[in-house]
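Re: beginner question about structure tokens

> Can someone show what the tokenized structure looks like for a real chain? I only ever see the sequence side.

Sure, here's an example I had lying around. Input first:
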Amino acid sequence: MYYEISINPAHGGFGEYQAGPTNGEGWADSDDLLNQISSNGVDAVELADGVALPEGVEDIRGCIHDQPQRVFGFIGPNGPHYFGISHA
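And the corresponding structure tokens:
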């Protein structure tokens, strides 16, 4: 099953992030989960090599403790937000 994972700045700071607990129910397919998240008005972009990111979204991969397999970012009303999708 695939789960949404919240990603927030780590308490220690220094540009590091921490993956949080899973959010919601599990999905059999990661793309179906991403489509469900997108249906809530989130225009997320996957952080991957060669992908153009929206202004304000940074490639934080490698700076996330317990980093999920797939990491996404988007600009929300209060600035950049990050989440992941992980297989469990």
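Each token stands for a local structural state, so reading them left to right follows the chain. The chain has one domain: 2-87.
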